[in-house]
Design goal:
about 290 residues, 13 strands, about 30% helix, 13-stranded mixed beta sheet, single chain, alpha+beta
């Protein structure tokens, strides 16, 4: 493997990684990389062959005990030559001693199991134009008595961060601040008596606009947020990655006419963290958790 080296990703590399992910059909958000680098500036690695980028991986540290693997891509021309596994080992070494999670595509799940990962649930992408989106102007009323849908930016950020902790193993305040505030995206919160009972973020992508996270105390609140957000998507076309362990979330998407198009297994190297899965209607990102 003469001529192959692993380095941290540059700003230019981050744009390239996003393009590679698009080519894989993952449909990352147009501006996701700016939030990703805030999460862990040293968490993205690139494999270079004779100076040219040929592979990438993210190994992002959260808090003191959690890490997430994503963006594991080797370019088609160099696959099967051992560069990918060297990059994988470097990413896992960076997360040594932590519980590690990832979202594994079907064809790679066997390899992840060999590395000690075990499936916790499947995240299923549901995609389409939600039925009834044109009538969602009164979505805040549809959320249920006493619930108001507001711009999440109008709420104290500490309140948003505390709510997010119900659905993620470690604090990720810097990432969350960037995620909800980047240009071109909208974050809405459902509030009852001063308490947050739902949160949804929509972001533009190359294909369907992706909604994530989507948190809600009830299916009615989740529907209100999803419908309101879908009104902001070009043509109303959205995609949301739904944990299949939340049967109410799956039923909601089916009821709105969204179709399963993609599946990845949420896998961990140890026991799955305790999360509010009943309130998790859509994960934030398959790339960084």
């Amino acid at each position: 493997m003469t001529g192959f080296e692993i380095t941290g990703a540059s700003a230019a590399d981050m744009g390239l990684i996003r393009a590679w992910a698009d080519e894989e059909g993952w449909n990352p958000g147009d501006c996701d990389r700016f939030a990703f680098t805030v999460a862990d500036p040293a968490g993205f690695l690139v494999g270079r062959l004779d100076g040219e980028p040929v592979a990438c991986i993210s190994a992002v540290r959260y808090g003191v005990g959690f890490g997430f693997i994503g963006f594991y891509i080797a370019r088609p021309a160099v696959r099967g030559r051992g560069y990918g596994i060297r990059l994988w080992n470097a990413g896992m070494e960076r997360l040594d001693g932590r519980l590690v999670g990832l979202d594994g595509v079907v064809e790679q799940q066997g390899n992840y199991r060999k590395s000690g990962f075990r499936s916790a649930w499947n995240n299923v992408r549901h995609e389409g134009v939600p039925q009834g989106v044109d009538g969602a102007a009164g979505a805040d009323a549809e959320a249920g008595g006493g619930v108001e849908v507001v711009d999440a930016a109008s709420l104290p950020f500490g309140q948003l961060a505390a709510y997010d902790r119900r659905f993620f193993p470690e604090p990720r305040d810097a990432f969350l601040a960037a995620w909800v505030g980047l240009p071109g995206r909208t974050a809405l919160a459902a509030v009852r008596d001063g308490r947050i009972e739902g949160l949804g973020v929509i972001r533009p992508c190359s294909a369907a606009s992706r909604i994530g996270p989507l948190y809600a105390a009830t299916p009615r609140i989740a529907a209100a947020l999803l419908l309101r957000l879908a009104r902001l998507a070009p043509g109303g076309l959205v995609a949301v990655d739904v944990p299949d362990v939340n049967q109410q979330a799956t039923a909601l998407c089916a009821g709105l006419g969204l179709t399963p198009t993609f599946e990845a297994a949420r896998m961990y190297t140890g026991p799955a963290p305790e999360l509010d899965l009943a309130g998790l209607y859509g994960v934030t990102s398959l790339e960084l958790g």
